[in-house]
Design brief:
This protein has 314 residues and is α/β, with parallel strands linked by helices. The chain is built from twelve helices and eleven strands. The protein is globular, with a radius of gyration of 18 Å.
C-alpha cells in the first residue's frame, strides 16, 4: 500500500513550513475510530496540518487492516496535509511493516542502544524508508515516564555535541531530543520546573533549520483532571508541560510536539461526564460521541494555544 493512495503526505514539507513559520505540527496519538475522527475534526476545523501518531501497541490493539480501513474511510485529501506516523518503532522490522501498510512517516527509537548501535539502526531504517519516500524520525537521549511497552525509563538528556554526527551519519529527517519532557500524565512535581532550554538552544545552533521533536510533551489540562475527578475518577498530582514553555520551544526548531496523555484524559473526561449526566444510558454511541467532542476541543485548544498551527494548511 502506498500512502499516497490514502491521501496522506510525508512530513518533510510540513516541517520546513513549521520551522520557517515558528510553529509546531501536532502529533496526536490515535487508537480507535473515535480518536481518529476527533483529531481529523480538529484539523479540519482549524485548517491545521496534523500527524496521526500510532504506537506499536495501538497498532496491535486496532489491527493493521482495521487501522488502514479507517484511514481510507476518513477520506483524507493531500491538501489537508495529514501524515500517518509510527510512534516509537522498536525495531527495523516494525518500521518496515508500517511502511508496507501505508504509513507516510516512521520513528525508529533505538535510543536505549549504544550511540553507535543507535546510528547503525537509524541509518538502516532511513535507507529503507527513503526508498519509499517515507519520512524518518529517530531519538537521541531518553525520556522518563511510562506510556506503553516502548516508552519507559529514566531521563537521559541529549548531548548537544552528538547531534551533528548522529544526523549526518543516519540521514534521518527529524530528531527527537530529551530536554526534560517525559511520558505519561505525571511529568512535573511542581509548576516551577523548566525544560532544559540551554540544551535545546545549543542543539538548534548546531543543527540550524533541522526539524527537532518533543515527545512526552502533553500539557495535562487541569480542567480535564477536575472533570474526571468530579465524576468519580481518582487522579491526583498529574502535571504537564506549561504551554508557555512549549510555545517557546516552537521558536527554537521544535517543529513537532507529541500529544497522547491529553487525549486519553479528554476521552475519559467525556465518557465520565456523559454517563454521570445520563446514568440510565447504555448506548455506547452516545457517550463515545461525547468523548469524541471532548477530544476535538482539546486538540483545538492545543493547535491554537500551543502549536500555533491554525490556518497553516496552504
Amino acid at each position: 500500500m502506498k500512502y499516497t493512495d490514502l491521501g496522506l503526505v510525508n512530513t518533510q514539507q510540513m516541517f520546513k513550513n513549521a520551522i520557517d513559520g515558528n510553529y509546531a505540527i501536532p502529533a496526536f496519538n490515535i487508537y480507535n475510530m473515535e480518536t481518529l475522527l476527533a483529531v481529523l475534526d480538529a484539523a479540519r476545523i482549524a485548517h491545521s496540518p496534523v500527524i496521526l501518531a500510532v504506537s506499536e501497541s495501538a497498532l496491535k490493539y486496532m489491527g493493521p487492516d482495521m487501522l488502514i480501513g479507517m484511514i481510507r474511510g476518513a477520506n483524507i485529501q493531500p491538501h489537508e496535509q495529514i501524515a500517518l506516523h509510527l510512534d516509537h518503532g522498536g525495531s527495523i522490522d516494525a518500521c518496515k511493516h508500517a511502511i508496507e501498510l501505508g504509513f507516510s512517516s516512521v520513528m525508529i527509537d533505538a535510543s536505549k542502544m549504544s550511540f553507535d548501535e543507535n546510528i547503525k539502526t537509524s541509518k538502516s531504517v532511513a535507507k529503507i524508508a527513503h526508498d519509499h519516500n517515507v519520512s524518518v524520525e529517530a531519538e537521541l537521549g531518553t525520556l522518563g515516564g511510562i506510556e506503553d511497552e516502548n516508552t519507559f525509563g529514566t531521563i537521559g538528556y541529549t548531548n548537544p555535541t552528538d547531534v551533528e554526527t548522529f544526523v549526518a551519519q543516519t540521514n534521518i529527517d527529524s530528531l527527537a531530543i530529551a530536554i526534560g519532557t517525559s511520558h505519561g500524565a505525571y511529568k512535573r512535581k511542581n509548576t516551577n520546573e523548566e525544560l532544559r532550554f540551554d540544551i535545546l538552544a545549543q542543539i538548534a545552533t548546531n543543527l540550524p533549520e533541522f526539524p527537532l521533536v518533543l515527545h512526552g510533551a502533553s500539557n495535562i489540562p487541569q480542567k480535564l483532571i477536575h472533570t474526571i475527578n468530579e465524576f468519580g475518577g481518582k487522579i491526583s498530582g498529574a502535571l504537564g508541560i506549561d504551554e508557555i514553555q512549549l510555545r517557546r520551544a516552537t521558536k527554537m526548531n521544535i517543529c513537532k510536539i507529541n500529544v497522547d496523555s491529553d487525549l486519553r484524559l479528554a476521552f475519559t473526561a467525556g465518557v465520565r461526564k456523559s454517563l454521570s449526566a445520563h446514568p440510565d444510558n447504555f448506548n455506547p454511541r452516545e457517550y463515545l460521541s461525547d468523548a469524541r467532542t471532548t477530544i476535538t476541543q482539546t486538540c483545538l485548544d492545543t493547535i491554537r494555544h500551543i502549536m500555533g498551527s491554525e490556518n497553516k494548511v496552504n
